[in-house]
Specification:
Subunit structure: The complex is composed of two ATP-binding proteins (PotA), two transmembrane proteins (PotB and PotC) and a solute-binding protein (PotD).
Strand content: 35-45%
Strand order of the largest sheet: 6-7-8-3-9-10
Distance between the termini: 43 Å
Number of strands: 22
Low-confidence stretches: 351-362
Organism: Christensenella massiliensis
Mean pLDDT: 90
CATH class of the largest domain: Alpha Beta
Family: Belongs to the ABC transporter superfamily. Spermidine/putrescine importer (TC 3.A.1.11.1) family.
CATH superfamily of the largest domain: P-loop containing nucleotide triphosphate hydrolases
Order of helices and strands: EEEHEEEHHHEHEHEEHHEEEEEEEEEEEE
Largest sheet: 6 strands, mixed
Number of domains: 3
GO molecular function: ABC-type putrescine transporter activity; ATP binding; ATP hydrolysis activity
Helix content: 10-25%
Protein name: Spermidine/putrescine import ATP-binding protein PotA
Shape: elongated
Length: about 350
Amino acid sequence: MSQHIIDFLGVYKEYDGVEVLSNINLYIRQNEFLTLLGPSGCGKTTLLRIIAGFEEPTRGDVCLFGESIKGIPPYKRRVNTVFQKYALFPHLNVFDNIAFGLKLKKMKKSVIEKKVGDMLKLVGLSGYGDRDIAKLSGGQQQRVAIARALVNEPEVLLLDEPLGALDLKFRQEMQLELKRMQKTLGITFVYVTHDQEEALTMSDAIAVIDGGVIQQIGTPEQIYNEPKNSFVADFIGESNIISGNMKRDYLVHFADNDFTCLDRGFNENEPVKVVIRPEDINITKNIADDMITGTVSSTLFMGVHYEIRVHGDNGFEWLVHSTEFFEAGNRVGFTLEPDDIHVMEVSQYDKMRVDGVPEAVK
């Protein structure tokens, strides 16, 4: 059997002649936690709804275990969905909410009691079976919704921004809980979010989507450290993105200096975009001749670090994270290690911005 559980094969989706998904080719592995990540309106929820059977592709095909599921109604697919609005039954207690699907299947009472008990234990709600839904916190209601979806033993669990209604503390706790549940059960989770932290924390793989197009697929480390274009670099965390030229393999020119890097395979003197994360910049008041230099324009205390804005002498506006305080007006220099520098091809997204000044993406 293929290790792919879901295959999107050249999928397009249109609404009233407007294309919202374009040539989606995506392969989701068994037992994988895959996150569909992107801004509002990018098409990520539409992808999820196609898997669930709530939408059909305009063109292309979707397969589950190698067999097309086009035209198969949601209740006949081996998938379950958890929404941001949990859609729990307010007139039923916790046990009966979780048991609802099992009762429809006319399972034996003893089987239902065992399955629901196992789910309550899994989601950390043992002893809550008799509780009224209205008396639960938002986080507890979310756990009930997940248990209700999982008790039917789906091959795939679809989660459409399920943590969006929770406050920060509960959201962070549930990120770890969801990952634990997925590993314990060994099933595939497909998770939709616009929150980069959620995606980086929980995922085995991330598909970054914008404008109905998958911009990059990879592990969290690959997405963060080796973005494929300016959109991914800017959307996943904060970045300094500056124009440069690849002089030769392992040598790139930007900010009026040549820098050793780890990148190769570009044409000689090819225009490129260089990505540098704020936390990778070594900032100092002890300026040397070979440093990038500039003047601190502002400093904000962010709790674990200072966020420092520096107006570079070459005109670029740098963002730096440092545990050391620098006052506005301080003259500073930067040093960079080769693995701090990430070189990208110039992409279609570069027309959306000028160096150092992100423009609104329409």
